[in-house]
Amino acid sequence: MIKGHLSRLMGEKRLTIKEVHEETGLSRNTISSIYNEKAKMIDLDTLEKLCAFLNCQVGDLLEYIEES
């Protein structure tokens, strides 16, 4: 299972979906679906924009958790 950490990262930096949208050019729906862990897939360009804006690595945004 893949666990997303966008909501935590945005919370730590006190960012809103609107602010991320305005700074990255990503759609609000895309950001919202990743934020709420509803995204089925994430484009590499999207990950690149989020990592650049949040000054983080892909591993900070996404984590693989083994299901037992």
Short descriptors:
two-stranded antiparallel sheet, 9% strand, 5 helices, 68 residues, 434 Repressor (Amino-terminal Domain), mainly alpha
Mean pLDDT: 96
> Structural class, please?
mainly alpha
Helix share, percent: 55-70%
CATH topology term = 434 Repressor (Amino-terminal Domain)
Oligomeric grouping of the chains: single chain
Number of strand segments: 2
Give the N-terminus to C-terminus distance in angstroms. 10 Å
Strand order of the largest sheet: 1-2
CATH class: Mainly Alpha
Strand content: 5-15%
The structural domain count equals 1
Corresponding CATH architecture: Orthogonal Bundle
Low-confidence parts: none
Tell me about the biggest sheet?
2 strands, antiparallel
Which word captures the global form?
globular
Quickly count the helices: 5
Task: Describe what you observe in this structure.
The chain is mainly alpha-helical and 68 residues long. It has a single domain (2-64), classed as 434 Repressor (Amino-terminal Domain), CATH 1.10.260. 56% of the residues lie in helices and 9% in strands. The chain contains 5 helices and 2 strands, in the order βαααααβ. The protein has helices spanning 6-12, 17-24, 28-35, 44-54, 58-61, and strands spanning 2-4, 62-64. Strands 1-2 form a two-stranded antiparallel sheet. Helix 2 (17-24) packs across helix 3. It starts with a strand and ends with a strand. The mean pLDDT is 96.
